[in-house]
Amino acid sequence: RLQGGPQFQWSNMKWVRGLVYGFLWYSSIIAGFFLLYCPCFYLIFINRRLYRKLTEVIFVCWESYPVALYQILFGTKIIVKGKRMNPRDKALVLMNHRTRLDWNFYWGALLQACWPHTYCDKYVLKSAIRNIPCLGWIMQLTCNLFVHRKWQEDKYLLDNVLQYFADIDHCCQIMIFPEGTDYTEKTKLRSDQYAETKGYPKFRHVLYPKVTGFASMMQTLKRGKQIDCLYDVTVGYPDATPQSEVDVIMGDIPREVHFHIDRICASDIEWEENKLKELCLRRWQLKETLLEEFNVSKCFPGPTEIESPVDVKFLYMSLLFWILLTLAGMFTILFTSLGFWWTLFHVVLFTAISTTTDGVQHLEIYLHKRRKGKSLPKEE
């Protein structure tokens, strides 16, 4: 776990620390989008290899900033047990979806268990997220995967991106939440109803996963030789459990977030569709057992934690850099005419792209396919 910095005492001002956290977090995204990502966007027409590299390097560098915010400013500890993650693995990562903020804390786990984190992690996200100003646009630029929850349409969109990764031999780790949504009373009720119709036992701590999408993604990755292993990540919150962004803004920032990581080698996986579906269900049964123990002991089993190789000075540097970038972005946008028109133009551009297409990532893929098609010799 990361230690070494002074901890600010905000205990009697929860809502203030929540507002500070939310403002610093989202303002860094706004500044990063307009100052860093928008200039990179035009490389998509000139040099897509450089475009892919730069957009991902920026994102990997930014991932340390939310970690710096909640660890240095608010004292949140990330505790990881299980297997280390190899940053050079091409992998699918499974995780239970306890809250809408799981991925925010997952970046802290990556700093500890997957270092040096040289490649960009991808996420399978709800399509609505790509329409969120700046945040959703960045997720498009970094070539994340978006789904509409209509399987035939989603299968095409997922396969399109996964085949593109195979085409360019792209090394990444793709995070998927097979439950499809976060754990709430409403979603728990739907999960129980599903279990009753299938004759399955009801889960207490997780929702039943959607196994069809998991099996399809695994087979597509296998065909493209894009999977070395499967990582099974389980997240648990022993105290405060921020269910949504509103909870964080109100100051519900947990003191600890726990992760357990398991690794399943690709050579140990049976690749038939039904076997993959069974594998997913087995992993969820194991998660249920893990979380049952966690609910009692407030920690995952295992003799030792995975200690972070990252010095706290690195987090201070990240905090300083992104705060300075945010200030530079605010000044440029608010007090210069060039910054104002640059911002307005790209707001209109990315709003149009997001509302009329499935995202910038599919433009990138289209341009790649067109060039590839032109470069291939025509059959006689």
Automatic annotation (TrEMBL):
The chain crosses the membrane at residues 23-45, 314-334. SMART domains: PlsC (SM00563). It comes from the Eukaryota. GO terms for molecular function: acyltransferase activity. GO terms for biological process: phosphatidylinositol acyl-chain remodeling. InterPro entries: Acyltransf_C, Plipid/glycerol_acylTrfase. GO terms for cellular component: endoplasmic reticulum. Keywords: Acyltransferase, Membrane, Transferase, Transmembrane, Transmembrane helix. Residues 91-215 form the Phospholipid/glycerol acyltransferase domain. The keyword Transmembrane applies. Belongs to the 1-acyl-sn-glycerol-3-phosphate acyltransferase family. This is Phospholipid/glycerol acyltransferase domain-containing protein.
